[in-house]
Fold this protein.
Amino acid sequence: DGNATKHPMTIVSQEVRANETWQVCATPNNKSIDGTTVCSNNVTILSAPISTCGSINVSTTLVNDITSNGTCFTINASNVALDCAGFSIFYGAAESGIGITAGNLTNITIKNCVIKDINATGANGWAINFTNIANSTIVNNTIQTNGTTDNYGIVLRLNSSNIIVENNTIRTLG
């Protein structure tokens, strides 16, 4: 139609969640008359890929190894899964930090991650920190802490309940 550059292939929205079904509809208008509305096929949101540390609000799949000076991921919404797909999270590069943290939420899943504290001498490094989390799962992760003061692989705090912790390997160096 001569407008190929005006038809985006990707639509980005912070309002989508995994397993939702969406449809896009457009109604052409020539500045005086509306044309026939055309709708896309249904699209199911699988997960949002992520390649840098930051806040997570929807189910997410890691697409590469990542490094953080302090804390890498903060999960801010319930019903979220972080699938690292075997990629690594290196946290605490310059200071104490947390690989993945979440608080006051339900139905959080952390899976298939390699999580390493890379500050060899720093204290207060936690790979996974759940504070007041319920009905959640931590599964198939490999965690390495540095072995200094207050370094933990998995921390479940303040009324965290019904957490399945399964098939994880936690190693301490030092």
Q: What stands out?
A: The chain has a mean pLDDT of 88. The chain is about 0% helix and 45% strand. The first strand starts at residue 21 and ends at 22.
